[in-house]
Amino acid sequence: MQKNELKISRRLCRGSYKRYDETSDVRQQEEQPELQISKRVGNIQEAADYMAEFVRVREWEKYHIPRSLALALFGEIGEVFELFLETKDNFSDALGDELADCLAYSVRLATVSDIDLTQALWHYFPY
Q1: Helices 92-112 & 44-57, crossing angle to 10 degrees?
Q2: Of the four, 12, 51, 83, 96, which is 20 to 30 A from 57 by CA?
Q3: pTM for the full predicted model
Q4: H/E element holding 8?
Q5: Tens digits of per-residue pLDDT, 14-57?
């Protein structure tokens, strides 16, 4: 297969309809299962449950091990840092996207590590 032979929208790869509307190279074009979202995610546990189902229907569990998720999180943190190195005046949209990526990997890492992130957060910030 030659480079650029198969292309699908990046939004199918990343799940974002706002930011990744260009195309991305893929080795295999697979039909992705649909997830039904009846409401917006309202808390960390709902986000974790949604992401677990998202991963399950795509059969990605074997790739979502703590080490891999930690490395992915580290890469996303690097992208946040990169925004501050650039001399852009207004990058709040890009910053929001990168922080959302960091949050998603953090929640997923906590889930596969059997950590209750809400409890851990309240332990860190006692009231």
Answers
A1: 80
A2: 96
A3: 0.66
A4: strand 7-9
A5: 444 344 444 444 444 455 556 555 556 578 888 899 999 999 99
